[in-house]
Amino acid sequence: MRSQNFALIENGPAIVGEDAALEIFRRVCRTRFFEEGLVRAVKDGFVTSPVYLSTGQESVAAALSVALPRPIIFAQHRCHGVYLSYGGDPVRLRDELMGLPTGTSGGRAGSNCVQCHDDGVTMHGHHGLIGENVPLAVGYALASGDTTLAIFGDGAAEEDYVLSSLGFAATHRLPVLFVCEDNNLSILTTVETRRSWKVSNVASSFGIGSEDLSDDPWTVYLKARELAKRTPALMNIYTCRANWHVGVGTDGPVEWDRFAEVKAALDGAGLKDKALGIEDAERLSMEKVWEQGQLRRLSGK
Amino acid sequence: MGTRTVAETIREITRAHLENGGMLLGESISAVGWVNNTVPDVKNIVELPMTDVAGAGIAAGAALAGRRPVFVVRFQDFLILNGSPLIFYAAKLKDLHGRSAPVFVRAIAAEGLGPVHSGVLHSLFMHFPGFKVASPMTPREYEEVWRIYMENDDPFICSEHRASYANKDELADETVDGADITIYSISSTRFEAKKALKLLQNEGVRCNLVNIVWLKPFALSSRLIEPLKDSKIGLVVDPGHEIAGASESIAYTLMINTGYPVKALGVEDRTKCLVPPLQNKAPDAFRIYEAAKGLLACTGRVFT
Ligand SMILES: Cc1ncc(C[n+]2csc(CCOP(=O)(O)OP(=O)(O)O)c2C)c(N)n1
Ligand SMILES: [Mg+2]
Question: How far apart are CA A152 and CA A181, in angstroms?
Answer without folding.
Answer: 6
